[in-house]
Amino acid sequence: MTDANPLLDDRDVAFLLHDVHDASALCALPAFAMHPKMRVMFTALADAGVLAATRPFEVGGQQLPSLVYTAASAYLCAGNSSAAGLAMLTSEAAHLIESFGSDELRARYVAPLYTGAMTGTMALTEPHAGSSLGDITTRATPHADGSYRISGAKIFISGGEHDLTDNIVHMVLARVEGAPRGTRGVSLFCVPKRRPDGALNDVRCAGVLHKIGWRALPSVALNFGEEGDCHGWLVGAAGRGLPQMFQMMNAARIGVGASAAATAYVAYQEALRYARSRPQGRALTARDGSSPQVLITAHPDVRRMLLRQKAIAEGALSLAFEAARFADLAEHAVDESERARARLLLDLLTPVVKTFPAERGFEANVLAVQVLGGYGYTSEYLPELWMRDQKLNSIHEGTTGIQSLDLLGRKVVAGGGEALRLWSEEVTRATREARAVGVEGAWCDAVDAAVGDVAALTMELGARGRSGDAEGMLAHATDYLDLMSTVVIAWQWIELAAVAHEALAGQLPRGHASCPLWPR
Amino acid sequence: MTDANPLLDDRDVAFLLHDVHDASALCALPAFAMHPKMRVMFTALADAGVLAATRPFEVGGQQLPSLVYTAASAYLCAGNSSAAGLAMLTSEAAHLIESFGSDELRARYVAPLYTGAMTGTMALTEPHAGSSLGDITTRATPHADGSYRISGAKIFISGGEHDLTDNIVHMVLARVEGAPRGTRGVSLFCVPKRRPDGALNDVRCAGVLHKIGWRALPSVALNFGEEGDCHGWLVGAAGRGLPQMFQMMNAARIGVGASAAATAYVAYQEALRYARSRPQGRALTARDGSSPQVLITAHPDVRRMLLRQKAIAEGALSLAFEAARFADLAEHAVDESERARARLLLDLLTPVVKTFPAERGFEANVLAVQVLGGYGYTSEYLPELWMRDQKLNSIHEGTTGIQSLDLLGRKVVAGGGEALRLWSEEVTRATREARAVGVEGAWCDAVDAAVGDVAALTMELGARGRSGDAEGMLAHATDYLDLMSTVVIAWQWIELAAVAHEALAGQLPRGHASCPLWPR
After folding, report:
1. Cβ contacts of B294-298, under 8 Å, gap ≥ 24
2. Residues whose CB falls within 8 Å of the CB of residue B463, separated by 6 or more in sequence, listed in order
3. Residue B232 pairs with which residues in a beta bridge?
4. CA distance B459 to chain A (A)
5. Residue A150 above 80 pLDDT?
6. Averaged over A114-133, what is the pLDDT?
7. Fewer CB within 10 Å: N-end or C-end of chain A?
């Protein structure tokens, strides 16, 4: 329970606000509600089975490969990242309970979440501890009935309050009293907005963040246990909160990457459509001012802007698909060594998949605005919306700085370089196969050389780390991620080029059922 | 006069809208008016003499060097780019009339504009002809009284309608009937909102663009002569519209650069202030989770983001000052050869001054948002506003693509390389002086080598152009500008380093009265 407010009595105000004047009824008015289209979109997503698409039949899922789900979700994210984001959060909250929850919790929440009858959240961040999860202070006190009483404040909780569903299931990181300091003392709790007996739990929305994008998905501050009566249930073992939450965070990071790729891609498509219909000026070589204006696709600089968007957006989307494929193999490959290999590659690529589509995708989104010129600077056209939406992707689910530390410090150096070695093998195989089907040798050579550059830089930075100069190593983590990402995307483009070459030569490669380059 | 609307009769609607129901009175209501602070800010700017700061005493100016004015305007732009922008437009409209207008026009408008009793606009852009000014179709028909009747539509006119002053003076590009096609047929007209006899001129606001930034400065579509009775007055000679307008455009381009530098700079300051007050996480080398959190300035990646902002923002501001200094010398140096030299350097640098602070400044503004993390993504904090404001600067007053063609095609190649040679001399002198006062030799060598790279690339692209492959040359114009800009900013930093070195050594250099590095 918080201290009494010295100015007005909190209980009296709450009595007047909620009991006498029914403040929450006002929130049902259109001006205070979620965008009405959100209900339409989320319902459609849920009805289509998107929330449990990759889950097994036993829990009501469609048991689809992640790769297929990622392709489908790219359309959904391009259509509306907020609706797709709420679906993803809900799906991953259910997945946590499915993986780690007690039978009772599974029976209570898994089906309602996977069908969209409830929605879920990730309640990690606290005002004083954004990326530093070991510093969270939300407390969980054991109760005689086997549950816990939760007390603390969380911020930036997407979908943390809304009127779309009657119940919201918060997956909350908190410390059981007496737990050790740091990350090892953090446990995971399931804290529903409405308790199993139907009563409202003591979870209060303390404020709405005015985000500059993703406006249909409210991001709120939540207070748990203001009245000392917030019921929560432990998920999995005490002290295992963070490792368990990483199941959700890893999926979310790949999801963010796919969403970021889709956000860059849809803006590129729109810029291309605009450029193909907008006449202005004449060819650089035209001397005759009386000739008709040309389409702006005729201007080299517009082509440069469109091609750069294409390289980023299509490369990013391919990388998101590649990561999803590794996720499928990591879990379902028949051979354990293949599963282990895929897991290492997926772990290595996760920070890249999270970051490249967000950071370079933003560059692509800015270019889409620029292609539309003055019109692009207005909210009468969509590119500025996608630009705003995209900016969130370098911040949420671990900032670019955090991803960079994860890549260089944990995935590359701490792993002794094994993941990087496996990735080099993948790239080398790709360039070899590309050469064999006739892809420009100079491109393949450049990619091979770049892999060598990454290896050399890794050795140099790793040596600094081993000599005790961790800061001398990690100060370059973001630049390292940027370099690595560029080479990763080049690898994807070599793969695209090889398959396209085969297709153009009339060879339907690798059992692909169709190819956009295949003559029809 | 436009064709009658086939659905409703335009005259009847206008009669009902304006005469019966007094639509314009509604525009005086707060919801439809300019932000009330705009009146406070613009009045303060006008009262401080900002609008005529650089103009001669004879026209009511303060005859200040452009360098001093640019320093002052950087504060104003950092405070509010919209108010400073309206001041600049007004000042430059007055300057056009001062330079090219008849005695009658000068007597009528120069003083009211320079004192802020009226405001001015640049009415160039038409919906079908953004960057392609030779394609404008607004017509001017000579009238027996010596004036013209103007007819046409303009778009993206900043300050084109507002209730701040009773009169607005539009500087309009139009074609006198029978004028040649292309840019040589374009003339400049002065078209006031209110005619000399006090009657409203036939200039209608046809719509407001919903810009994503610069919200206090309305950008509107204007229709001239819907009723066939829009009075305009020729400024200067017929067919000289574009060369005359370039006086305004060149000043505006430097003004945009200074404003862009200020917008990057103020965001950097805010991000720095935030980082110095925000604790989170621990040093990379700290193993003890129980130690207090450190300020985020302790994290190498935050320092990287702040230093990159500093390099861009302070480098850009120094370049804006350098350009202003050349503008002063180009006009007022005693020696004609020195004036000519400064003019060439100013012309060469203008597209760089316009573009680097806008493009790389935007990168800096995005980093300011990133430093604030989730908070940066909300409109509760200012960095997102500066990010939105900054994006306009790569679009208005000639897009980055247009500036790039101007630099490579016109300023470098068409000029036979003379301007580039003079600039190389400036850089070489700067690195020589820097070495002499002890600036790190490797930095000076790197800048000298980069100037060599620019020269070599210029030769290669120039050769393509001379061989008839203009497109093969100009397709690289934007990348050329990016490279050139980087070297230009490096040159500025060498100058800063040299002066700072002297100051730190206790030598008060070049008569500077103060230096932030000077021990107090």
Report:
1. B296/B371
2. none
3. B148
4. 20
5. yes
6. 90
7. C
All structural domains of chain B, each given as residue ranges with its CATH number in brackets, are 34-239 (2.40.110.20), 241-398 (1.20.140.10), 399-508 (no CATH)
User: Residue B173 has which token pair?
Assistant: 């590009």
Report which of B347, B257, B271, B249 is spatially closest to residue B73, judged by C-alpha positions. B257
CA distance A221 to A206: 5
Q: How far apart are CA B350 and CA B355, in angstroms?
A: 9
**How many angstroms separate the CA atoms of B353 and B488, rounded?**
9
Catalytic residue among A270, A397, A495, A502: A397
State how far the alpha carbon of A234 is from the alpha carbons of A121, A125, A135, B91, B205, in Å. 16, 18, 19, 68, 63
Question: How many other C-beta atoms can be found within 10 angstroms of the C-beta atom of residue A24?
Answer: 12
Strands, E assignment, B82-184: 119-123, 139-142, 148-158, 168-176
Q: B190 near B171, Cβ under 8 Å?
A: yes
Calculate the average pLDDT of chain B.
92
Strand B139-142 relative to strand B148-158, pairing? antiparallel
Q: What local confidence, expressed as pLDDT, does residue A520 receive?
A: 39
pLDDT over 50 (residue A26): yes
- So what's the pLDDT on residue A519? 44
pLDDT band for B30, please (50, 70, 90 cuts): low
State the pLDDT at residue B514: 52
Q: What are phi and psi of A22, to 5 degrees?
A: 50, 60
Of B181, B209, B391, the CB nearest to A289: B181
Measured between alpha carbons, how far is B328 from B305 in angstroms, rounded to an integer? 35
pLDDT in tens, A159-194: 999 999 999 999 999 999 999 988 899 999 999 999
| pLDDT higher than 50, residue B519 | no
What is the tens place of the pLDDT at every residue in A391-446? 999 999 999 999 999 999 999 998 889 999 999 999 999 999 999 999 999 999 99
Give me the mean pLDDT over the A487-513 stretch.
83
Its ipTM equals: 0.89
* DSSP E strands, B209-284: 219-224, 231-235
Three-class SS state of A128:
coil
CA distance A76 to B386: 31
User: How high is the pLDDT of residue B520?
Assistant: 39
Residues of B in contact with A373 (CB under 8 A): 130-131, 395, 399
CA dist A86 and A84 (Å) reads 6
Q: Residue A176 in 3-state DSSP?
A: strand
CB pairs under 8 A between A and B: 163
Pairwise CA distance, residues B511 & B518, whole Å: 13
Closest residue in chain A to residue B128, using alpha carbons only: A280
B397 is catalytic: yes
The CA-based angle A289-A293-A294, given to 5 degrees, is 125
**Packing angle of the helix pair A36-47, A81-100 (nearest 10 deg):** 50
Q: What is the pLDDT of residue B1?
A: 41
pLDDT on residue B23 = 72
Give B17's DSSP letter: I
pTM here? 0.91
The helix (run of H) or strand (run of E) holding residue B252 is helix B241-275
Contact list, A374 vs chain B (CB under 8 Å): 125, 130, 155-156, 209, 395-396
CB atoms within 10 A of CB A379: 12
Structure tokens at A413: 């150096």
Q: Does A366 reach chain B within 8 Å, measured CB to CB?
A: yes
- DSSP labels for B369-388? HHHTHHHHTBTTSSHHHHHH
The more confident residue out of B286 and A127 is A127
